[in-house]
Amino acid sequence: MKAKKILAAVTALSLTTVVFASCGDSADSSSSTAAATTTTAVTTTTTAATTTTAAADSAATGGGAGDSAVAADSTADSKTTGGDSDYTPVKTFEGYDAFLMFGDGEWLWGNWEGQGEPEATKAFGVDADITGDGEYTVSITNASISYDDPDEGINPQIALDGDYAVGAQGCVVMCVDIIGLLNGEKLKGTGDPKTDKETPGKYNADDLKVELKSIKADGQEVAFDKAKIKYGNIEDNNNCYRIEIYNDYGDTAKDSPIDKDNLAFEDSLEITFSIEGLSE
């Protein structure tokens, strides 16, 4: 038991070190020297794979102001999901791949890429296929975050109790990224914008109307200051459209739109948003 706890902590810490080097845009490179979050010991009977992977592609800088979050207080009896049989990733998209980028305070729940990215190894979410104007939900669930993908393997950050992931506590990053959407001015790649983040897409961020509708932790509403959410092409290393809710390496760390320290859930985190301006 002790050995397995130590293994989970070591694995999470090794991922944390890599994430510090990749979170944020080029203006925030100094954040990579920030002190690593020490993984709190958790009660667990098994741990995830012992190998590590490179962590988050990025978590951009942004601004915001504080408000309180309603933390979901779930118990073991609420474990209605979990296990591979409850989740099948969708990796082909008719429109644009939107995903929930998230890392909890102990670096155990980590989802850093979209399922549609061709060589993704850090994708463990339930993505949305953005095919036009409308309302969409992206999420991570206990089943998705602990899924043993035949291509990607199991999330190397996660700590398991049997086949069920230990619940998430706190938050270091919470964003929604829509891949392939924006006609960025700085990056002019020549690939497919839906799979190559450096290739410009079709839309100008200022011409889109995007609004965060709700955050739910285990089905319970999480309060946020909607006036302080940041929208647009926040990073300078891709052409993604981002809804930035919280980022430990950006301005929202100083004045957060959510009470990120009291965020807690066991089964799911869901973000619902609306988008207008995609219709031809």
In short:
This protein has 280 residues and is mainly β. It has helices at 2-22, 142-145, and strands at residues 46-47, 96-103, 110-111, 128-130, 134-141, 159-161, 164-165, 168-169, 173-178, 209-217, 220-221, 230-232, 241-247, 264-265, 268-276.
In words, what does this structure look like?
This is Dockerin. Residues 67-82 have a biased composition (Low complexity). Keywords: Signal. Residues 1-21 form the signal peptide. By secondary structure, the chain is mainly beta. The chain has one domain (58-153, 167-276). It contains two helices and 15 strands. It has helices at residues 2-22, 142-145; strands spanning 46-47, 96-103, 110-111, 128-130, 134-141, 159-161, 164-165, 168-169, 173-178, 209-217, 220-221, 230-232, 241-247, 264-265, 268-276. Strands 2, 3, 4, 9, 12 and 13 form a six-stranded antiparallel β-sheet that branches. The model is unreliable at 1-23, 25-58 and 60-84 (pLDDT under 50).
List the keywords:
single chain; 280 residues; mainly beta; six-stranded antiparallel sheet; four-stranded antiparallel sheet; 2 helices; 15 strands; 9% helix; disordered N terminus; Dockerin; signal
Layout of strands and helices, then pairs:
Layout (H helix, E strand, L loop, with lengths): L1 H21 L23 E2 L48 E8 L6 E2 L16 E3 L3 E8 H4 L13 E3 L2 E2 L2 E2 L3 E6 L30 E9 L2 E2 L8 E3 L8 E7 L16 E2 L2 E9 L4
Antiparallel strand pairs: 1-6, 2-3, 2-4, 2-9, 5-15, 6-7, 8-14, 9-13, 10-11, 10-15, 12-13
